[in-house]
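Internal tracking record. Fields below are filled automatically when a chain is submitted to the structure queue. Please do not edit lines marked as system-generated. If the sequence contains nonstandard residues, flag them in the REMARKS field before resubmitting.
Queue: standard
Priority: normal
Entity type: single polypeptide chain
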Amino acid sequence: MNYLSVGFKVYFLVLFSVLLSGCFFKEEPLITHDLLYAESGDQVEVYAREGGKKYRWKQLSGTAVAIKNKRTSTLKFTAPTVTEKTDLVFELKAKFDDPVHDQITITVFPILIINGVRLPPEPLPEENNATLVGIDSNDNGVRDDVERWIYTTFEDKHPVHIEVGMQSARTWKRIFEGGADKALETVEFVHAALACQSYYKVYAKYYDEPILIFESISLFQQVKRKVLSIPERTEAFFAYDKALSGGVYTLPKSGTRKGQCDFDTAKVVGE
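SYSTEM-GENERATED OUTPUT FOLLOWS
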């Protein structure tokens, strides 16, 4: 007869229980997020696991802030005024059955106002990359991190750079939402952005207007590099692009290309 010894049975049951608890009863982290973003002046709240007997928050580095109550499960403070991206590191020590501790980094960005436009805050990567379109908190058709990049990259150049960059960025929302099924419709908006750019880069001088864009790499391509930040977005673009393969497409005639801009050219260029 085959049988297990009592000692082996006990060992087996203990080992099985340990493995089972490790697989199915993993302890909840003390702090849910590893990284958070905020802007100067924001009211920041970070929540820790409830049910502890004691809590104590401590700031380890960065511009000093006033923690509203160091001995609760929630960290609360006002983000400091900063002139550049600044990391604030906090530690939480807590006691449940046993003492535990954890850390969190909160990155504070300065409020960005460029050309009179207050830009949206930098989105959390995990939220921004959860969908193809990403976070567009001001609902202007451009992903928040891409909008911030456009404004900061071309801040010191003629404003037409920002406007053309934003028009280019808006096409990507259409690409991702329309997919391959609406590729033929979407490509018209892509061509409009390219036509607008080419007018101020090549053709304006033929119509007694100044050449304003001198980028060696097109603004559309620069925006594309920023937009395609995760493999899923690149795959979606390839699917859209494949749907257009074999087709013949032409840009508008040079004299009509300014009319393809989706912004007020007279106001931006000063005509």
